[in-house]
Amino acid sequence: xxxxxxxxxxxxxxxxxxxxxxxxxxxxxxxxxxxxxxxxxxxxxxxxxxxxxxxxxxxxxxxxxxxxxxxxxxxxxxxxxxxxxxxxxxxxxxxxxxxxxxxxxxxxxxxxxxxxxxxxxxxxxxxxxxxxxxxxxxxxxxxxxxxxxxxxxxxxxxxxxxxxxxxxxxxxxxxxxxxxxxxxxxxxxxxxxxxxxxxxxxxxxxxxxxxxxxxxxxxxxxxxxxxxxxxxxxxxxxxxxxxxxxxxxxxxxxxxxxxxxxxxxxxxxxxxxxxxxxxxxxxxxxxxxxxxxxxxxxxxxxxxxxxxxxx
Length: 311
Known about the structure:
311 residues, alpha/beta, five-stranded mixed beta sheet, 15 strands
């Protein structure tokens, strides 16, 4: 395995590359663009790279389904950290192009919902066609296959384009969440401001099946930050659930919730416990009464005394 190589969703000039370069260790790694999220993750699985950075959630569009599905299937991988990147698009064109010249536009599918209103207002007749990534859309514009691409302004120089319009976003404060993924190993130590990700497969489809899963978190005071259903491929109505929960697997409330899920689910895939981006422990609300590690320990000690006739 190459311990110094990180892959990412390419080509050069993607928001994923920009997010990866915010990590301190990126300065000492070989950063290798890949043509797709599956390709970036497969490089980790087969030992060609130590880790991959891929997008997993957008504040406008929600979960990035390709990433969620790839992490839920195949050889297991683990999330070790996350990166949040503010997202604003630029309309990249070949030099000399005006808005009146633009008949076709391209960009990553996740970009379209973030610029839909701007397109309707400024380029109502332009035809949209998706690209593998925003930077790949810029490459296609350079090659003359499209008139314009929505991408990061920083990609213009890489592809010899101009930013005709900048700071395009339908939603203020839009951001995308990226995760650094590697081969399974022991999670990093808890920081007090952590996140745990899992994928859950219920035994069967029955009334209250999802409620039963959610109760494992709720009764232990574990806050959920994301839950998204994904088809399993086994037929209509067969779903698994990708879940992000506050806390670390070493926290008693989280660990016991996961044990409850293991008992009640057909399958549980642990994707990792890792520090939350942009949040410190002091910014989190106080734990609900009865859900701290101390209180779990006290309850366990009380049960042991009761079983021993000393309650």
